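Try it yourself: sequence plus zinc ion, in.
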Amino acid sequence: MTPTTLDRGLALTVALRLDRSHEQCAAWIESADRVCGRDALRPWLCKRHETVAKRRLEKEVAQEKAQAEQARQRAEEQRPAREARLAQINARLDQIDPFRADGNADTAAMCAPLSQRLPSDTRIAELARLYRERDALMRTLRTH
Ligand SMILES: [Zn+2]
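Structure, out:
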């Protein structure tokens, strides 16, 4: 029997290391301070430790699912605040970004020569910050 990734994953829930022959159970017995060593029914696991390993793996999977669900709920709770902040940023960008085609930027300023409508350093820094925050918000809103 050639060990699969699942065999390894399963065995590693009860074994500390898998560097021995997989013909023998590699489960670590804490109370006896040794490995099990019984004949393995599947790579590195005897019948008893296969049961233990499956139970642990199921528990891990269940915990991961619960954590993912919690994260999803948290993201859902934060969604309105994030969307509100995004609207705020877009409104501000419409005001201050002279290159925003779809914005309400001052048309007089748009018609001024480029040298005159170039934003100040402070304004450029604000634009950069707002665009960064906006992109981060949009990414977060998209993935949740
Ligand atoms: Zn065993």
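One thing you can check immediately is this: The pocket of zinc ion is lined by residues 25, 27, 36, 38, 46, 48-49 (CB under 6 Å).
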